[in-house]
Every structure is written in C-alpha cells, then in structure tokens.
Specification:
By secondary structure, the protein is an alpha/beta fold. The protein has helices at residues 7-26, 44-59, 75-87, 106-112, 124-131, 140-151, 171-179, 197-202, 253-256, 271-287, and strands spanning 3-4, 34-40, 63-69, 93-96, 160-164, 186-190, 206-209, 227-230, 234-237, 245-248, 262-263. The N and C termini lie far apart (43 Å). The structure holds NADPH dihydro-nicotinamide-adenine-dinucleotide phosphate.
Amino acid sequence: MAHIIDGRLIASQIRQEVKQAVLAHTSTGRRAPNLAVVLVGEDPASASYVRGKAKASAEVGIESDTLTFAETISEGELLAVVKRLNADHNVDGILVQLPLPAHIDDTRIINAISPEKDVDCFHPASVGRLSIGLDGYAPATPAGIVLLLERSNIETSGAHCVIIGRSNIVGKPLANLMLRKGIDATVTVCHSRTRGLPALARQADILVAAIGRAHFVTADMVKPGATVIDVGINRVSDPSRERGYRLVGDVDFDAVRPIAGHITPVPGGVGPMTIAVLLQNTLKAATT
Ligand code: NDP
C-alpha cells in the first residue's frame, strides 16, 4: 500500500521557512517583500486563487496588493499597468492571474513583465534560464513537485520519470527541472498523440499525471512501487455533497494506491505546493 505524500504538511513547512526568512530580512530594517497580483474580470475560480495567494502571503509577512480590473480593460491599458509595476521599486514580484479575457493576448502581457519580477516563471527569459540550468525563479507547480519528491526522500538520480502532459505551466518545465544536474532523472514526456502510453507509463519509477482528465491513470499503468504524482484537479459530480461536486485528480487513487510506493492525494498533494513556491519566489525577488 503506497505511502501518502502529504502536500499540505510539506507546504506548511515551506511556508514556515519563508516566514522565518522574511523575519530575518525585515529585522535588519528592510521593508517586507511585496507581491503585486493583477486580476482581470470576475471569474470565480481566478478570484478564489488570488484570495488564496493574498492570504498565504500575509501569513508569512509578504505584503501583497491585488489590483482588480474590469473585464473590459483593453490590452493597452493592461500593458500600461504592467509597465508601471515594473518601474515601481516597492514591488518585488508581479503575477498576472491567467486566463485573461479573450480580447487580451496572454503572451503579450506575460512578455511585458520584467524578468526580474516574474515570480510565476512564465516569461520566455525565465523559461530559457530554466532550460539551460541558470539560476532564476522556479516554475511554481513543477518546483513544488520536485520539493515533494526531495522531502519524501524519493530517489530521482537515474530514475525514469514519465510525465503525462506537455503544457507550458506543468509538463514542459517539469521535464526541464527533472533533467537538471543534481536531480538527474531520465525523462519521457507523453501527450495526446503518444503511442503506447500505458506501456510507457508502466516503465516509470516516477509517474506524473498532468492531463486534466479524471481518473486517467489506472492501476494497469503503474509499475509496482512507483511514485505517482497527481497534478490534475477535476470536478466530478457528487450529489452527496452540498455543492454537488467533488475534486479528483488524474489518477484513479483507490485503484493505484495498493500498487504504488508513494502517491499524492487530490486535494492535499501538489496543489498546496504551488502557492508555497510562489512565496519562495517572492522572497527571492526581494532578497536578490
Ligand atoms: P493542459 O490542458 O494545458 O495540458 C494537458 C496535457 O495533457 C496536454 O499536453 C495534452 O496533450 C495532454 N493530454 C490530454 N489528453 C490526453 C490523453 N488522452 N492522453 C495523453 N495526454 C493527454 O493542462 P495543464 O497542464 O494546465 O493542467 C493539467 C491538470 O493539472 C489540470 O487538471 C489542471 O487543473 C491541473 N493543474 C493543477 C495545478 C496545481 O497546482 N495542482 C497547477 C496547474 C494545473 P496535447 O498537448 O497533445 O493536447
């Protein structure tokens, strides 16, 4: 029966470490790290993520300002906001909550963020630094996964890591991180056109599911003893819950747990790590 990797516990340890480091930083008379969060429109999920980031920042002593704009803001106006934040010496990190409304080009906005303040690690310069192994900001979800592996003493050196999903926010940056010297995994990245995916998944010592399909990874796709990291967040209907749904991952947890060596739950696995890494990045922005 797999050991459950407790993302809530590991994330709370990291938040505690950030809090101590923020205290050490401000105790010398310097101002607290500052994160500017830009939210456009009224998408409830985006608003809830932004509230979560603001609350987590406050808990560790990071100041965060949420700048909220109507859905009707133009691309030019939003670019001007980003430029103003780039120039503001009291702002250390800038985060633009995605997705943006359809009339605004996400890429153009992300590319306008100063790479020194790009705590989400989405700017092409940040992605480039990551891919050639230079120091920089860590991509939040992938770096959170690496921290989960490290703090659970999962051997990555020489391990075969199979990642299902090639998105720019999870699959690709995770592949880059897992390939890094010091982490040293052998990486296979799968996607919707991959042939023989179940057989590839069965070769994984570390199997990462970042697909966005409930229960995609079944027991027959997992090698006995493998570490299974579930990034997916999917709503499935559940009339027994007041809200009518529950959240499940991309892995069929109940079927896979008896086979795997380690497994992350959903919720409570990768999810809490994402914000913890964002806090680490904001601290880094203020202190380097
Ligand atoms: P994307 O939709 O951007 O990417 C999904 C990937 O899965 C694509 O590469 C796609 O392949 C691949 N895929 C889809 N269907 C199949 C299939 N049948 N077989 C093989 N591969 C397939 O998703 P994200 O990476 O943004 O997110 C993935 C999941 O992780 C979502 O559930 C999301 O909510 C969750 N998530 C969780 C986070 C957290 O903090 N816990 C953070 C970010 C995401 P192709 O490229 O060929 O289309």
